[in-house]
Amino acid sequence: MVGYDYVISIEHEDAMMSQAEGLAKGVALLKEAGIFESAGEMFWA
């Protein structure tokens, strides 16, 4: 994640899903929501 260099915690307390599936879904969600590229220069300023 751009500029972030600390811990990200995933909690899984769903009794209807295995630990492996819960972790995989949590990681996938973070990858989808995360920002991984710098914005660069402001083109309008």
Which terms would index this structure?
45 residues, 33% helix, mainly alpha
In short:
With 45 residues, this protein is an all-alpha fold.
What does this structure look like?
With 45 residues, this protein is mostly helical. It has one helix spanning 19-33.
List the helices and strands and how they pair.
Layout: H1 19-33
The helix count comes to 1
Percent of sequence in beta strands: under 5%
What is the CA-based Rg, rounded?
15 Å
Mean pLDDT: 87
Q: Please provide the count of β strands.
A: 0
Low-confidence stretches: none
Task: Tell me the distance between the termini.
Answer: 25 Å
Net shape: elongated
**Helical coverage, percent range:** 25-40%
Helix/strand/pairing category: mainly alpha
